[in-house]
Design a protein that fits this description.
The complex is a heterodimer of chains A (245) and B (303). Chain A has 245 residues and is of the alpha/beta class. Chain A is 37% helix and 25% strand. By secondary structure, chain B is mostly helical. The complex binds adenosine-5'-triphosphate and magnesium ion. The site of adenosine-5'-triphosphate (ATP) has 12 residues of chain A, from β2 and α1.
Chain lengths: 245, 303
């Protein structure tokens, strides 16, 4: 079965001055798939998201979305094309309620809803992601699990075709993590293709169709979850090499 | 509802003020002070609208002076009618603001403030140096509008005031409230959410500059004489900023309340204690910043 590729990166690389944060990363995201990126701290996972969402320009390489080269577009244009993302360091807009945060996504996202429509949508979205009871809260005053939900709800409000989820499981208790897994599945079932960064192995095992392992900015290996975790490089990257210094 | 009635009542009082003033002793003085207050209210609003996008500008004196000088030169030297010279001043200011905006609005906080401050100072220096066109620091005299009739002037500025309130309230109630607040609180996230942050800031900067420039042209045709140190006066920018902070930032009513109160205090202090008034004035502002981060309206909202 030939699957359709919705998003692809071809050898993207990012230098911060002398620091090589991401080097030659090529990945392919199939439509309605969940791709997981794992790797130790500082491996370059978030930077890869920043390159795909256009927060930083690439140093070299190309990004292809729905067959078009979008390497030179700005973040707003990528949002309008259908790339949505959450932030690892949660960043709700201060001076705005939960509902207003979501409304902003609906107003300026892919469909650019009118204010009336966007307000309507944001109520629906708040309900869908279990944020309704907190709708009038200021984002930063929310409990952690709800801030994670707000990150997703706000990105979802821009009507993305691809969602980049940066560590949305981190810090959740088992019940909350369970709920989050169901949420991610529901997004996928709706037709959204997903790239997720995560450290938690059991969630990746359950969710991911394909796993990419990064270390020191490079792609270490990729494959199905079961194959990847058995590979020698991955075990070494996580547990360290058997070396005596 | 109550708010709405109050604001209509407020506008009504401002509208009929000249009639009240007519029956007071020293009518001319009252009118002149209220014209000043209205002009500052408009400037404070224009500064507030821009700062809603997170950009604290010091370009107000620059555009105020630019408007004033274009208006003076086009009427005096080139013999244009007042209305045309105002339109030309607005056109020139908007072009300058586009360019300046694209150059500087990528800068944040302090850097943007300094860049726009430099703009105001550079314009003043240019005006002083280009003696052939501007008559340098001697200043330039020209015609006055409405033959100096204060009632007419008051109503012209009152109409402008109502229009600027309209623009400000439109921003507060439209999708621009969402984009401005998003840009101000986290520009990077705003971009990822599909907001064209640079364009929105540039457009707001241009509108804000045109308002300052318009008030500058009024100044020319009210006084009939301008000189660089008074129209490019940095204290115009500082006053607008202080009024916004004093009254309550990111709102329509805050800058208005701030401008009215501070301008009245300014007037009373400068006529009673003379030169030292700036000290008291400065103290009032420092105290507000320290103890009333939301301005005087913040006290009221808490209740
Ligand atoms: N804006 C930046 N400027 C300079 N260096 C950066 C910047 N962003 C990231 N880096 C560096 O790039 C490297 C990769 O960081 P990145 O945040 O992508 O890692 P990560 O895989 O997401 O790690 P974590 O699991 O801790 O979130 C790190 O060394 C980091 O310090
Ligand atoms: Mg990260």
């Amino acid at each position: 079965m030939a699957e359709k590729i919705i998003l692809e990166t071809r050898g993207i690389t990012k230098y911060f001055g002398g620091l090589r944060a991401v080097y030659n990363i090529s990945l392919k995201l199939n439509e309605k798939n969940i791709l997981a990126i794992i790797g130790p701290n500082g491996a370059g996972k978030t930077t890869t998201f920043n390159l795909i969402s256009g927060v930083f320009p690439v140093s070299s390489g190309n990004i292809i979305f729905e067959g078009k080269d979008i390497t030179k577009t700005n973040p707003a244009e990528r949002c309008h094309l259908g790339i949505g993302r959450t932030f690892q360091i949660m960043q709700p807009f201060e001076d705005m309620s939960v509902l207003e945060n979501i409304t902003t996504g609906a107003l300026f996202g892919r469909h650019k809803y009118s204010l009336k429509e966007a307000k309507q949508k944001s109520l629906e979205i708040a309900k869908r992601f279990g944020l309704f009871e907190y709708k009038d809260f200021v984002g930063s005053k929310l409990p952690l699990a709800y801030r994670k939900k707000l990150e997703i709800a706000r990105a979802y409000a821009t009507s993305p075709k691809v969602m980049l989820l940066d560590e949305v499981m981190e810090g959740l208790n088992p019940a909350e993590a369970r709920e989050m897994i169901e949420t991610i599945f529901s997004l996928r079932d709706e037709g959204i293709s997903i790239i997720m960064i995560d450290h938690i192995m059991f969630t990746i095992k359950e969710l991911a169709d394909w796993v990419i392992v990064m270390n020191y900015g490079e792609k270490l290996t990729e494959g199905k979850y079961d194959d990847v975790v058995k590979s020698k490089e991955v075990i070494e990257a996580y547990l360290g090499k058997e070396e005596t210094c | 509802m109550k708010k709405k009635i109050l604001s209509y009542l407020g506008i009504f009082i401002v509208a009929i003020f000249p009639l009240i003033a007519y029956f007071m002793p020293g009518t001319k003085y009252f009118l002149q002070v209220s014209i000043d207050i209205l002009m500052y209210t408009i400037l404070a609003l224009s500064w507030d609208m821009l700062v809603r996008t997170g950009q604290a500008s010091f370009a107000i004196p620059g555009f105020y002076g630019l408007g004033a000088y274009v208006a003076a030169i086009f009427t005096k030297t080139l013999g244009f009618p007042i209305i045309f010279s105002i339109i030309i001043a607005l056109l020139i200011s908007s072009i300058v603001a586009w360019l300046l905006g694209y150059l500087t609005l990528r800068l944040k906080g302090m850097y943007f403030a300094i860049a726009t401050l430099a703009f105001s100072l550079i314009l003043m220096t240019l005006v002083i140096q280009l003696k052939d066109i501007t008559h340098g620091s001697e200043g330039i005299s020209t015609i006055t509008m409405f033959a100096g009739n204060k009632y007419m002037i008051y109503y012209l500025i009152f109409i402008t005031f109502v229009i600027v309130i309209g623009i400000s309230e439109y921003i507060q109630r439209s999708k621009y409230w969402y984009s401005f607040t998003a840009i101000r609180t986290n520009e990077q996230v705003a971009k990822v959410m599909g907001i064209n942050t640079v364009r929105q800031k540039v457009v707001m900067f241009v509108i804000s500059a045109m308002i300052a420039s318009l008030i500058g042209t009024y100044e020319t045709f009210i006084a009939g004489f301008i000189e660089p140190h008074s129209v490019f006066n940095l204290s115009i920018g500082v006053m607008a900023l202080a009024m916004v902070i004093f009254g309550g930032i990111y709102s329509t009513i805050g800058p208005i309340v701030g401008a009215v109160i501070l301008k009245i205090i300014d007037e009373i202090l400068s006529t009673t204690i003379g030169l030292g008034y700036m000290i008291v004035y400065g103290l009032i502002i420092v105290i507000t910043i320290l103890y009333l981060p939301k301005g005087v309206l913040g006290i009221w909202q808490k209740k």
